[in-house]
């Protein structure tokens, strides 16, 4: 087949431009991205071979190799992993599948105007393209395990790439960067220096579980075999979660996080858990510092990987954490599971369910601790993940108290400081038994609601709930620490202290006085309403519509109607 030339997708082209003009000042990370891809490819091959013994693939010495050619100024990262077919190269390397990329590029542009672009870049699958930060041309040669022909992909990172079928390609993938001309002023980015490569691998990829090898320069070692020295292995390959806490630096944890999550930013929180006893496992979990753009879409991939005795089993293991903790990334390594375990089996497994319960509690208690000890970090957490976490109030009754305890809400008490329920309860007025809230679309619209008048008048604090999920959980949960959660827009609300005889008498008198008017109004409105009654909840507005205590709120009614119920 002749060489074919293809155009990059628009989004891909925009990303490439970003890479070539390198908005990211730390270019070294391109090597981490290539090594990370190679490592994934080796994981995938090992797994595929395990599932399909007949697969014609060599898994005897899975490893990653880095080659430097000083004369040609090239750097090659090679793996003997799963490889890609012709079609896959075009699909995976030529395009950006992530649907959020357009949004990302838009935000990136805005952030750039404000000077904060760097942090945004890592969120999307720009991994492979980062090679263009260091190279003016990239070549990828690959053969998928089990297939006979290979594929060569080349690009100068501009508008097009080429694809051709090639023979005699070893299984796996090699990516060759033709490095940009050396900058005599800046030796820091000399990627033809073995010293530099060793440093980068040590820094970013030490924990990779496959050996990363590099040929030693002749003469680098003394002794008889100085002519052809053994390649050196650059990484220690130690699983971070199996090492003791004191042994591992925060930086090392963070690099593992970046490898797993494909995020370039530091995580907000690192969580470790070692379970001993009959069912042993180790977990190393991370809370990201930003919610990904696709967190609420069906395409969102969870971030917890399952290992069995240090061997990677699967990505995206949904059985390990409940859906409302889907933003948590990390690794869980179990000692006693079959390497052949499937997703279906996991969902049923009693041990996995025990793990899920324990991990869930651990994450929630970590958030609780963050809340008491690091208010600012907790603030970030809640801003990014509060909405997702609240789903748990509806779906996980066992932990709803723990979730409520770490939740915070906008309140009439302060303009921009959210409050926790505990703080609300502490501020409750004498004689106030319930926690009052109002739901709606925006703070502004509900703050000005007539339902709020009497509360404002009497200085009673009201929680302002504006997430769609708020409509649902307030009904499921019902109370917090023995205090009822009550909507200001539902049922009869008597804000005057009960047993106040004068007030009671006053009201009886008013009822008599207005009986005629109320009756007439009831007749006029007829079927549209249930009843007309005098209210103590209004101070300025003459009238408002109130739901029965057990009715659906208007927003929920709309939601159900939209769902066709
Ligand atoms: P990501 O790793 O986040 O998916 P990348 O841009 O780094 O994004 O890679 C895109 C895709 O190309 C990968 O998901 C993978 O399917 C494929 N790929 C990249 N490098 C390799 C490799 N060395 N071996 C096999 N597939 C690869
Ligand atoms: Mg990648």
Explain what you see.
- This is Chaperone protein HtpG.
- Residues 26-183 form the Histidine kinase/HSP90-like ATPase domain.
- The protein is α+β, with helices and mostly antiparallel strands and 565 residues long.
- Helix content is 36%, strand content 19%.
- It contains 17 helices and 20 strands.
- The strands form 3 sheets. It has a 9-stranded mixed beta sheet with strand order 1-6-5-4-7-3-2-8-9, covered by helices on one side. Strands 16-15-18-17-20-19 form a 6-stranded mixed beta sheet.
- β10 and β11 (281-287) form a beta hairpin.
- The longest helix has 25 residues, at 501-525.
- The protein is elongated.
- 35% of the residues are buried.
- The structure holds adenosine-5'-diphosphate and magnesium ion.
- The site of adenosine-5'-diphosphate has 16 residues, from α2 and α3.
**Structural class by SSE content:** alpha+beta
Strand order of the largest sheet: 1-6-5-4-7-3-2-8-9
Summarize the main sheet. Answer: 9 strands, mixed
- Contiguous uncertain segments of 5+ residues: none
For the terminal residues, how far apart are their CA atoms? 56 Å
Name the hetero compounds present: adenosine-5'-diphosphate, magnesium ion
Mean pLDDT: 85
Task: State the helix count.
Answer: 17
Please tell me how large the radius of gyration is. Answer: 30 Å
Shape: elongated
Q: In what range is the share of β-strand residues?
A: 15-25%
Summarize the amount of helix as a percent range: 25-40%
Number of strands: 20
């Amino acid at each position: 087949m002749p060489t074919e030339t293809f155009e990059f997708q628009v989004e891909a082209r925009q990303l490439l431009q970003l890479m070539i003009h390198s908005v990211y000042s730390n270019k070294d990370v391109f090597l981490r991205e290539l090594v990370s891809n190679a490592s994934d490819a080796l994981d995938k091959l090992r797994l595929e071979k395990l599932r399909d013994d007949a697969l014609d693939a060599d898994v005897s010495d899975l490893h990653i190799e880095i080659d430097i050619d000083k004369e040609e100024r090239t750097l090659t990262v090679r793996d003997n992993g799963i490889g890609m077919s012709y079609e896959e190269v075009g699909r995976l390397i030529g395009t950006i599948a992530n649907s959020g990329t357009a949004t990302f590029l838009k935000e990136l542009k805005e952030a750039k105007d404000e000077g904060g672009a760097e942090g945004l870049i890592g969120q999307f699958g720009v991994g492979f393209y980062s090679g263009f930060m260091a190279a003016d041309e990239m070549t990828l040669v690959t053969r998928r395990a089990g297939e006979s022909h290979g594929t060569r992909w080349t690009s100068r990172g501009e508008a097009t790439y080429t694809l051709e079928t090639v023979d005699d390609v070893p299984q796996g993938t090699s990516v060759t960067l033709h490095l940009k001309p050396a900058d005599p002023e800046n030796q820091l980015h000399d990627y033809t220096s073995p010293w530099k490569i060793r440093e980068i691998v040590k820094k970013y990829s030490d924990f990779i579980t496959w050996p990363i090898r590099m040929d030693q320069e002749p003469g680098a070692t003394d002794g008889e075999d100085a002519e052809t020295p053994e390649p050196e292995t650059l990484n220690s390959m130690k699983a971070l979660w199996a090492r003791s806490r004191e042994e591992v630096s925060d930086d090392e944890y963070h690099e593992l996080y970046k490898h797993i999550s494909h995020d370039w930013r530091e995580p907000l929180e690192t969580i470790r858990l070692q379970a001993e006893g009959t069912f042993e496992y180790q977990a190393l979990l991370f809370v990201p510092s930003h919610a990904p753009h696709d967190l609420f879409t069906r395409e969102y991939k969870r971030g917890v990987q399952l290992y069995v005795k240090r061997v990677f089993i699967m990505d995206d293991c949904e059985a390990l954490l409940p859906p409302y903790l889907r933003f948590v990334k990390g690794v869980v390594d179990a000692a006693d599971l079959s390497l052949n375990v499937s997703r279906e089996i996991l969902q049923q497994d009693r041990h996995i369910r025990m793990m899920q319960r324990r991990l869930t509690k651990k994450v929630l208690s970590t958030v609780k601790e963050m809340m008491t000890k690091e208010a600012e970090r907790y603030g970030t957490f809640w801003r990014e993940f509060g909405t997702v976490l609240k789903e748990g109030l509806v779906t996980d009754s066992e932990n709803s108290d723990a979730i409520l305890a770490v939740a915070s809400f906008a309140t009439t008490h302060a303009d921009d400081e959210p409050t926790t329920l505990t703080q609300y309860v502490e501020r409750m007025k004498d004689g106030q038994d319930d926690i009052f809230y109002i739901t709606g679309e925006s703070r502004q619209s509900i703050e000005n609601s007539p339902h709020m008048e009497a509360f404002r008048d009497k200085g009673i604090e009201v929680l302002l709930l504006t997430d769609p999920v708020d409509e649902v959980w307030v009904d499921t949960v019902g109370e917090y620490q023995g205090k009822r959660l009550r909507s200001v827009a539902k049922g009869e609300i008597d804000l005057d202290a009960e047993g106040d005889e004068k007030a009671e008498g006053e009201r009886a008198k008013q009822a008599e006085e207005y009986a005629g008017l109320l009756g007439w109004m009831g007749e006029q409105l007829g079927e549209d309403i249930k009843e007309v009654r005098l209210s103590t909840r209004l101070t300025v507005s003459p009238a408002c519509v109130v739901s029965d205590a057990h009715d659906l709120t208007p927003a929920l009614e709309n939601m159900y109607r939209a769902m066709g119920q």
